[in-house]
Protein backbone atom coordinates (compact mmCIF):
# COMPACT_ATOMS: atom_id res chain seq x y z
CA UNK A 1 0.00 0.00 0.00
CA UNK A 2 1.60 3.33 -1.05
CA UNK A 3 1.86 5.44 2.13
CA UNK A 4 2.50 9.17 1.96
CA UNK A 5 3.07 11.86 4.54
CA UNK A 6 3.86 15.59 4.54
CA UNK A 7 6.57 17.57 6.29
CA UNK A 8 6.94 21.34 6.56
CA UNK A 9 10.75 21.40 6.67
CA UNK A 10 13.31 20.05 4.26
CA UNK A 11 16.00 17.80 5.77
CA UNK A 12 19.63 18.35 4.84
CA UNK A 13 19.61 15.12 2.88
CA UNK A 14 16.79 13.10 1.29
CA UNK A 15 17.21 9.39 0.61
CA UNK A 16 15.45 7.66 -2.31
CA UNK A 17 13.16 5.81 0.11
CA UNK A 18 12.06 8.99 1.85
CA UNK A 19 11.65 10.82 -1.47
CA UNK A 20 9.19 8.16 -2.62
CA UNK A 21 6.87 8.53 0.36
CA UNK A 22 7.14 12.07 1.69
CA UNK A 23 5.96 15.41 0.34
CA UNK A 24 7.53 18.67 1.51
CA UNK A 25 5.56 21.90 1.71
CA UNK A 26 7.50 24.76 3.26
CA UNK A 27 6.86 28.52 3.37
CA UNK A 28 9.93 29.20 1.20
CA UNK A 29 8.70 27.34 -1.94
CA UNK A 30 11.60 24.89 -1.92
CA UNK A 31 9.58 21.71 -1.43
CA UNK A 32 7.63 19.22 -3.52
CA UNK A 33 5.11 21.73 -4.86
CA UNK A 34 4.97 24.82 -7.02
CA UNK A 35 2.91 27.10 -4.80
CA UNK A 36 2.53 30.84 -4.14
CA UNK A 37 2.07 30.21 -0.42
CA UNK A 38 3.21 27.91 2.35
CA UNK A 39 1.16 25.36 4.29
CA UNK A 40 -0.50 28.17 6.27
CA UNK A 41 -1.93 29.74 3.07
CA UNK A 42 -0.71 33.13 4.29
CA UNK A 43 -0.81 34.80 0.89
CA UNK A 44 -4.55 34.09 0.62
CA UNK A 45 -5.23 36.07 3.79
CA UNK A 46 -6.46 35.12 7.28
CA UNK A 47 -7.89 31.71 6.36
CA UNK A 48 -9.39 29.89 9.39
CA UNK A 49 -7.38 26.88 10.57
CA UNK A 50 -9.97 24.20 9.64
CA UNK A 51 -10.03 25.43 6.04
CA UNK A 52 -6.22 25.49 5.94
CA UNK A 53 -6.33 21.86 7.02
CA UNK A 54 -8.96 21.03 4.40
CA UNK A 55 -6.57 22.37 1.75
CA UNK A 56 -3.75 20.23 3.19
CA UNK A 57 -5.99 17.18 2.98
CA UNK A 58 -6.81 18.02 -0.65
CA UNK A 59 -3.12 18.58 -1.43
CA UNK A 60 -2.18 15.20 0.02
CA UNK A 61 -4.99 13.46 -1.87
CA UNK A 62 -3.98 15.15 -5.13
CA UNK A 63 -0.26 14.47 -4.62
CA UNK A 64 -0.79 10.80 -3.75
CA UNK A 65 -3.15 10.37 -6.71
CA UNK A 66 -0.68 12.09 -9.03
CA UNK A 67 2.28 10.02 -7.81
CA UNK A 68 0.80 6.51 -7.81
CA UNK A 69 0.46 4.97 -11.29
CA UNK A 70 -2.59 2.83 -11.92
CA UNK A 71 -2.27 -0.78 -12.99
CA UNK A 72 -3.26 -0.29 -16.62
CA UNK A 73 -4.54 -3.44 -18.22
CA UNK A 74 -5.68 -5.24 -15.08
CA UNK A 75 -9.34 -6.08 -14.58
CA UNK A 76 -9.61 -3.56 -11.74
CA UNK A 77 -7.19 -1.01 -13.11
CA UNK A 78 -8.81 1.99 -11.43
CA UNK A 79 -8.53 0.78 -7.83
CA UNK A 80 -5.41 1.52 -5.77
CA UNK A 81 -4.81 1.28 -2.02
CA UNK A 82 -3.63 4.72 -0.88
CA UNK A 83 -2.58 5.62 2.66
CA UNK A 84 -1.98 9.29 3.49
CA UNK A 85 -1.07 11.14 6.67
CA UNK A 86 -2.25 14.76 6.92
CA UNK A 87 -0.59 17.26 9.31
CA UNK A 88 -3.21 19.25 11.26
CA UNK A 89 -3.31 21.44 14.35
CA UNK A 90 -6.01 19.38 16.07
CA UNK A 91 -6.41 15.76 14.89
CA UNK A 92 -9.44 15.34 17.15
CA UNK A 93 -11.29 17.77 14.89
CA UNK A 94 -11.00 15.39 11.94
CA UNK A 95 -11.03 11.96 13.58
CA UNK A 96 -14.87 11.78 13.92
CA UNK A 97 -15.26 12.23 10.14
CA UNK A 98 -12.21 10.22 9.06
CA UNK A 99 -13.93 7.02 7.95
CA UNK A 100 -16.66 8.91 6.10
CA UNK A 101 -14.00 10.99 4.34
CA UNK A 102 -12.23 7.79 3.29
CA UNK A 103 -15.46 6.49 1.76
CA UNK A 104 -16.10 9.82 0.05
CA UNK A 105 -12.63 9.86 -1.49
CA UNK A 106 -13.27 6.34 -2.74
CA UNK A 107 -16.47 7.55 -4.36
CA UNK A 108 -14.51 10.33 -6.03
CA UNK A 109 -11.51 8.42 -7.37
CA UNK A 110 -12.44 4.74 -7.32
CA UNK A 111 -9.58 3.94 -4.93
CA UNK A 112 -9.38 2.58 -1.37
CA UNK A 113 -8.16 5.40 0.88
CA UNK A 114 -6.80 5.26 4.43
CA UNK A 115 -6.45 8.60 6.24
CA UNK A 116 -4.42 9.48 9.30
CA UNK A 117 -4.28 12.91 10.93
CA UNK A 118 -1.02 13.85 12.67
CA UNK A 119 -0.66 16.76 15.08
CA UNK A 120 1.65 19.41 13.64
CA UNK A 121 2.22 23.09 14.26
CA UNK A 122 1.82 25.32 11.22
CA UNK A 123 5.06 27.13 10.34
CA UNK A 124 5.03 30.89 10.70
CA UNK A 125 4.43 32.75 7.46
CA UNK A 126 3.31 36.26 6.62
CA UNK A 127 -0.46 36.61 6.35
CA UNK A 128 -1.68 39.02 3.69
CA UNK A 129 -4.46 41.49 4.34
CA UNK A 130 -7.87 40.57 2.93
CA UNK A 131 -8.30 42.41 -0.38
CA UNK A 132 -11.83 41.54 -1.45
CA UNK A 133 -14.06 43.71 0.68
CA UNK A 134 -17.64 43.94 -0.59
CA UNK A 135 -17.60 40.61 -2.43
CA UNK A 136 -20.77 38.57 -1.96
CA UNK A 137 -19.78 35.27 -3.54
CA UNK A 138 -16.81 33.17 -4.66
CA UNK A 139 -17.04 31.44 -8.06
CA UNK A 140 -14.63 28.79 -9.30
CA UNK A 141 -13.41 29.92 -12.73
CA UNK A 142 -11.49 27.09 -14.39
CA UNK A 143 -11.50 28.49 -17.92
CA UNK A 144 -14.10 25.95 -19.03
CA UNK A 145 -17.45 26.80 -20.57
CA UNK A 146 -19.58 25.89 -17.54
CA UNK A 147 -17.58 27.93 -15.04
CA UNK A 148 -17.58 30.82 -17.52
CA UNK A 149 -21.37 30.77 -17.68
CA UNK A 150 -21.39 30.58 -13.89
CA UNK A 151 -19.23 33.70 -13.64
CA UNK A 152 -21.40 35.45 -16.25
CA UNK A 153 -24.66 34.66 -14.43
CA UNK A 154 -23.14 35.52 -11.05
CA UNK A 155 -22.09 38.97 -12.26
CA UNK A 156 -25.52 39.52 -13.80
CA UNK A 157 -27.33 38.40 -10.65
CA UNK A 158 -25.24 40.40 -8.20
CA UNK A 159 -25.78 43.66 -10.12
CA UNK A 160 -24.21 46.35 -7.91
CA UNK A 161 -22.19 43.88 -5.84
CA UNK A 162 -19.19 41.86 -6.95
CA UNK A 163 -17.70 38.40 -6.66
CA UNK A 164 -14.31 36.72 -6.35
CA UNK A 165 -13.34 34.48 -9.24
CA UNK A 166 -10.85 31.81 -8.14
CA UNK A 167 -8.84 30.00 -10.81
CA UNK A 168 -6.52 27.06 -10.28
CA UNK A 169 -3.63 27.06 -12.74
CA UNK A 170 -2.11 23.64 -13.34
CA UNK A 171 -1.12 23.80 -17.00
CA UNK A 172 0.34 27.26 -17.64
CA UNK A 173 -1.34 27.57 -21.06
CA UNK A 174 -4.74 27.84 -19.36
CA UNK A 175 -3.84 31.01 -17.39
CA UNK A 176 -4.29 33.46 -20.31
CA UNK A 177 -7.57 31.72 -21.22
CA UNK A 178 -8.87 32.38 -17.71
CA UNK A 179 -7.80 36.04 -17.79
CA UNK A 180 -9.35 36.62 -21.21
CA UNK A 181 -12.67 35.16 -20.08
CA UNK A 182 -12.81 37.36 -16.99
CA UNK A 183 -12.07 40.40 -19.16
CA UNK A 184 -14.83 39.48 -21.62
CA UNK A 185 -17.38 38.97 -18.85
CA UNK A 186 -16.50 42.37 -17.39
CA UNK A 187 -17.11 43.98 -20.78
CA UNK A 188 -20.40 42.14 -21.38
CA UNK A 189 -22.06 42.78 -18.00
CA UNK A 190 -21.78 46.20 -16.38
CA UNK A 191 -20.90 46.25 -12.71
CA UNK A 192 -18.16 46.78 -10.12
CA UNK A 193 -14.64 45.50 -10.65
CA UNK A 194 -14.37 41.72 -10.50
CA UNK A 195 -11.78 40.22 -8.18
CA UNK A 196 -9.84 37.47 -9.95
CA UNK A 197 -7.40 35.27 -8.04
CA UNK A 198 -5.31 32.83 -10.08
CA UNK A 199 -3.55 30.22 -7.96
CA UNK A 200 -0.79 28.17 -9.52
CA UNK A 201 -0.39 25.01 -7.51
CA UNK A 202 1.06 21.75 -8.79
CA UNK A 203 3.34 18.94 -7.76
CA UNK A 204 6.86 19.28 -9.12
CA UNK A 205 8.33 16.71 -11.49
CA UNK A 206 11.18 16.03 -9.06
CA UNK A 207 11.65 15.98 -5.32
CA UNK A 208 14.29 18.22 -3.73
CA UNK A 209 17.51 16.33 -4.24
CA UNK A 210 16.68 15.40 -7.81
CA UNK A 211 14.57 12.26 -7.30
CA UNK A 212 11.83 12.07 -9.96
CA UNK A 213 8.24 11.35 -8.97
CA UNK A 214 6.22 8.56 -10.51
CA UNK A 215 3.38 9.98 -12.60
CA UNK A 216 -0.31 9.17 -12.95
CA UNK A 217 -2.16 11.40 -15.40
CA UNK A 218 -5.83 10.55 -14.79
CA UNK A 219 -5.85 12.66 -11.57
CA UNK A 220 -9.55 12.44 -10.79
CA UNK A 221 -8.89 14.27 -7.51
CA UNK A 222 -7.28 17.44 -8.89
CA UNK A 223 -10.53 19.39 -8.82
CA UNK A 224 -10.94 18.57 -5.11
CA UNK A 225 -7.88 20.76 -4.58
CA UNK A 226 -9.52 23.48 -6.68
CA UNK A 227 -12.65 23.21 -4.52
CA UNK A 228 -10.69 23.37 -1.26
CA UNK A 229 -8.76 26.45 -2.43
CA UNK A 230 -12.03 28.14 -3.38
CA UNK A 231 -13.45 27.36 0.05
CA UNK A 232 -10.30 28.75 1.68
CA UNK A 233 -10.87 32.10 -0.03
CA UNK A 234 -14.59 31.97 0.78
CA UNK A 235 -13.98 31.07 4.44
CA UNK A 236 -12.38 34.41 5.33
CA UNK A 237 -15.71 36.24 5.03
CA UNK A 238 -17.86 33.06 5.09
CA UNK A 239 -19.10 33.58 1.54
CA UNK A 240 -20.97 30.99 -0.52
CA UNK A 241 -18.92 29.12 -3.12
CA UNK A 242 -20.28 28.38 -6.59
CA UNK A 243 -18.86 25.41 -8.48
CA UNK A 244 -20.69 25.74 -11.83
CA UNK A 245 -21.13 22.50 -13.79
CA UNK A 246 -23.95 21.21 -15.95
CA UNK A 247 -26.05 18.63 -14.18
CA UNK A 248 -25.75 15.98 -16.90
CA UNK A 249 -21.96 15.81 -16.63
CA UNK A 250 -22.19 15.99 -12.84
CA UNK A 251 -24.45 12.93 -12.70
CA UNK A 252 -22.39 11.27 -15.44
CA UNK A 253 -24.63 8.27 -16.19
CA UNK A 254 -22.68 5.14 -17.15
CA UNK A 255 -22.18 5.17 -20.90
CA UNK A 256 -20.41 1.81 -21.09
CA UNK A 257 -20.01 -1.09 -18.69
CA UNK A 258 -16.45 0.08 -17.86
CA UNK A 259 -17.23 3.79 -17.86
CA UNK A 260 -16.21 4.20 -14.19
CA UNK A 261 -12.65 3.67 -15.33
CA UNK A 262 -12.65 5.90 -18.41
CA UNK A 263 -14.93 8.92 -18.56
CA UNK A 264 -16.00 9.47 -15.00
CA UNK A 265 -15.32 12.48 -12.82
CA UNK A 266 -17.35 13.00 -9.67
CA UNK A 267 -16.12 16.23 -8.10
CA UNK A 268 -19.39 18.01 -8.95
CA UNK A 269 -21.65 15.01 -8.37
CA UNK A 270 -24.48 16.25 -6.10
CA UNK A 271 -23.87 13.52 -3.52
CA UNK A 272 -20.15 14.28 -3.37
CA UNK A 273 -20.72 18.02 -2.95
CA UNK A 274 -23.33 17.50 -0.24
CA UNK A 275 -21.26 15.02 1.73
CA UNK A 276 -18.07 17.06 1.41
CA UNK A 277 -19.93 20.11 2.68
CA UNK A 278 -21.44 18.15 5.57
CA UNK A 279 -18.18 16.50 6.65
CA UNK A 280 -16.04 19.63 6.32
CA UNK A 281 -18.62 21.62 8.28
CA UNK A 282 -18.68 18.96 11.00
CA UNK A 283 -14.89 19.31 11.28
CA UNK A 284 -15.26 23.09 11.72
CA UNK A 285 -14.45 24.26 8.19
CA UNK A 286 -16.53 26.70 6.16
CA UNK A 287 -18.06 24.66 3.33
CA UNK A 288 -21.10 26.39 1.83
CA UNK A 289 -21.05 24.90 -1.69
CA UNK A 290 -23.59 25.29 -4.48
CA UNK A 291 -23.78 24.14 -8.08
CA UNK A 292 -26.34 26.57 -9.57
CA UNK A 293 -26.75 24.42 -12.70
CA UNK A 294 -27.29 21.03 -11.05
CA UNK A 295 -30.61 20.56 -12.88
CA UNK A 296 -29.55 21.87 -16.31
CA UNK A 297 -27.86 20.36 -19.36
CA UNK A 298 -24.83 22.03 -20.89
CA UNK A 299 -26.85 23.01 -23.97
CA UNK A 300 -29.45 24.67 -21.74
CA UNK A 301 -26.67 26.62 -20.06
CA UNK A 302 -25.34 27.74 -23.45
CA UNK A 303 -28.84 28.86 -24.40
CA UNK A 304 -29.20 30.81 -21.15
CA UNK A 305 -25.94 32.65 -21.85
CA UNK A 306 -27.13 33.48 -25.38
CA UNK A 307 -30.44 34.79 -24.02
CA UNK A 308 -28.51 37.09 -21.70
CA UNK A 309 -25.84 38.53 -24.01
CA UNK A 310 -26.94 37.54 -27.54
CA UNK A 311 -25.76 34.84 -29.94
CA UNK A 312 -22.68 36.64 -31.26
CA UNK A 313 -21.36 37.61 -27.83
CA UNK A 314 -22.10 34.15 -26.44
CA UNK A 315 -20.29 32.58 -29.39
CA UNK A 316 -17.21 34.74 -28.83
CA UNK A 317 -17.17 34.10 -25.09
CA UNK A 318 -17.86 30.36 -25.09
CA UNK A 319 -15.60 29.62 -28.05
CA UNK A 320 -12.75 31.20 -26.07
CA UNK A 321 -13.19 28.72 -23.20
CA UNK A 322 -11.27 25.45 -22.85
CA UNK A 323 -13.04 22.10 -22.42
CA UNK A 324 -10.55 19.54 -23.75
CA UNK A 325 -9.57 16.86 -21.26
CA UNK A 326 -6.18 16.24 -22.84
CA UNK A 327 -2.96 18.16 -22.22
CA UNK A 328 -0.54 16.24 -24.43
CA UNK A 329 -0.84 18.41 -27.52
CA UNK A 330 2.56 20.06 -27.09
CA UNK A 331 4.47 16.76 -27.09
CA UNK A 332 2.89 15.95 -30.47
CA UNK A 333 3.70 19.42 -31.85
CA UNK A 334 0.04 20.40 -31.88
CA UNK A 335 -1.33 23.82 -30.84
CA UNK A 336 -1.70 23.77 -27.06
CA UNK A 337 -4.81 25.96 -27.22
CA UNK A 338 -6.65 23.61 -29.58
CA UNK A 339 -9.30 21.06 -28.66
CA UNK A 340 -9.05 17.44 -29.74
CA UNK A 341 -12.77 17.33 -30.53
CA UNK A 342 -13.18 13.66 -29.59
CA UNK A 343 -12.78 13.40 -25.80
CA UNK A 344 -15.87 13.48 -23.57
CA UNK A 345 -15.42 17.16 -22.72
CA UNK A 346 -15.09 18.14 -26.38
CA UNK A 347 -18.01 16.00 -27.57
CA UNK A 348 -20.31 17.42 -24.90
CA UNK A 349 -19.13 20.92 -25.80
CA UNK A 350 -19.80 20.40 -29.52
CA UNK A 351 -23.26 19.01 -28.79
CA UNK A 352 -24.08 21.98 -26.56
CA UNK A 353 -23.22 24.50 -29.26
CA UNK A 354 -25.47 22.58 -31.66
CA UNK A 355 -28.34 22.30 -29.17
CA UNK A 356 -28.28 25.99 -28.25
CA UNK A 357 -27.78 27.36 -31.75
CA UNK A 358 -24.73 29.31 -30.57
CA UNK A 359 -22.12 29.38 -33.38
CA UNK A 360 -19.08 27.28 -32.48
CA UNK A 361 -15.75 28.93 -33.39
CA UNK A 362 -13.60 26.44 -31.50
CA UNK A 363 -10.43 25.09 -33.12
CA UNK A 364 -10.91 21.30 -33.10
CA UNK A 365 -8.07 19.07 -34.27
CA UNK A 366 -10.62 16.60 -35.59
CA UNK A 367 -11.67 19.21 -38.17
CA UNK A 368 -8.15 19.86 -39.49
CA UNK A 369 -7.37 18.70 -43.03
CA UNK A 370 -4.08 17.29 -41.78
CA UNK A 371 -5.63 15.83 -38.65
CA UNK A 372 -3.37 13.69 -36.44
CA UNK A 373 -5.23 10.41 -36.92
CA UNK A 374 -3.27 8.21 -34.52
CA UNK A 375 -3.33 10.84 -31.76
CA UNK A 376 -7.08 11.36 -32.06
CA UNK A 377 -7.82 7.65 -32.27
CA UNK A 378 -6.09 7.15 -28.94
CA UNK A 379 -8.06 9.99 -27.31
CA UNK A 380 -11.50 9.35 -28.79
CA UNK A 381 -14.55 8.21 -26.80
CA UNK A 382 -16.85 8.86 -29.76
CA UNK A 383 -17.68 5.16 -30.19
CA UNK A 384 -18.75 4.90 -26.53
CA UNK A 385 -20.93 8.00 -26.83
CA UNK A 386 -22.50 6.77 -30.06
CA UNK A 387 -23.28 3.40 -28.45
CA UNK A 388 -24.83 5.10 -25.41
CA UNK A 389 -26.96 7.39 -27.55
CA UNK A 390 -28.09 4.47 -29.73
CA UNK A 391 -29.18 2.24 -26.85
CA UNK A 392 -30.78 5.12 -24.97
CA UNK A 393 -31.32 5.66 -21.25
CA UNK A 394 -32.43 2.73 -19.11
CA UNK A 395 -34.09 2.92 -15.68
CA UNK A 396 -31.14 0.96 -14.31
CA UNK A 397 -28.83 3.79 -15.43
CA UNK A 398 -30.59 6.18 -13.06
CA UNK A 399 -30.73 3.68 -10.22
CA UNK A 400 -26.92 3.59 -9.96
CA UNK A 401 -26.38 7.37 -9.90
CA UNK A 402 -26.08 7.60 -6.07
CA UNK A 403 -28.46 10.55 -5.80
CA UNK A 404 -28.67 12.57 -2.58
CA UNK A 405 -32.09 12.66 -0.85
CA UNK A 406 -33.08 16.03 -2.32
CA UNK A 407 -32.48 14.92 -5.93
CA UNK A 408 -35.45 12.93 -7.26
CA UNK A 409 -35.00 10.05 -9.69
CA UNK A 410 -37.61 11.73 -11.90
CA UNK A 411 -35.49 14.90 -12.13
CA UNK A 412 -32.37 12.84 -12.83
CA UNK A 413 -34.11 10.77 -15.51
CA UNK A 414 -35.45 13.87 -17.25
CA UNK A 415 -32.09 15.62 -17.11
CA UNK A 416 -30.24 12.62 -18.54
CA UNK A 417 -32.81 12.22 -21.31
CA UNK A 418 -32.34 15.86 -22.30
CA UNK A 419 -28.57 15.46 -22.18
CA UNK A 420 -28.73 12.43 -24.47
CA UNK A 421 -30.97 14.34 -26.88
CA UNK A 422 -28.24 16.96 -27.16
CA UNK A 423 -25.57 14.31 -27.78
CA UNK A 424 -27.72 12.81 -30.55
CA UNK A 425 -27.13 15.99 -32.55
CA UNK A 426 -23.50 14.95 -33.03
CA UNK A 427 -24.60 11.98 -35.10
CA UNK A 428 -27.57 13.46 -36.97
From TrEMBL:
<dbReference type="GO" id="GO:0046872">
    <property type="term" value="F:metal ion binding"/>
</dbReference>
<dbReference type="InterPro" id="IPR014729">
    <property type="entry name" value="Rossmann-like_a/b/a_fold"/>
</dbReference>
<dbReference type="InterPro" id="IPR018317">
    <property type="entry name" value="QueC"/>
</dbReference>
<dbReference type="GO" id="GO:0005524">
    <property type="term" value="F:ATP binding"/>
</dbReference>
<dbReference type="GO" id="GO:0016874">
    <property type="term" value="F:ligase activity"/>
</dbReference>
<keyword id="KW-0862">Zinc</keyword>
<keyword id="KW-0436">Ligase</keyword>
<protein>
    <recommendedName>
        <fullName>7-cyano-7-deazaguanine synthase</fullName>
        <ecNumber>6.3.4.20</ecNumber>
    </recommendedName>
</protein>
<comment type="similarity">
    <text>Belongs to the QueC family.</text>
</comment>
<comment type="pathway">
    <text>Purine metabolism; 7-cyano-7-deazaguanine biosynthesis.</text>
</comment>
<keyword id="KW-0479">Metal-binding</keyword>
<keyword id="KW-0547">Nucleotide-binding</keyword>
<keyword id="KW-0067">ATP-binding</keyword>
Amino acid sequence: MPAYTMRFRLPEKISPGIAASRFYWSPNDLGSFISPFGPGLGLLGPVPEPNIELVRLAVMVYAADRSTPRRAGSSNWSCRDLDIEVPVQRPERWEPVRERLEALLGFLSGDAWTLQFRQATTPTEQVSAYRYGGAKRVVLASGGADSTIGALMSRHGLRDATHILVSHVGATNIAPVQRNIVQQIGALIAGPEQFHRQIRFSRRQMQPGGFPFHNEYSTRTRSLLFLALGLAVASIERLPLWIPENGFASLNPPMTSDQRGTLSTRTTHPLFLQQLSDLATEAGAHAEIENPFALMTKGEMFGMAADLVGLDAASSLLSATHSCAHTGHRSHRLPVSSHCGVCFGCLLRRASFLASGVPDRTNYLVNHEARPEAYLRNKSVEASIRHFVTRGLRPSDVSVLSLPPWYSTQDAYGLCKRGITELELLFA
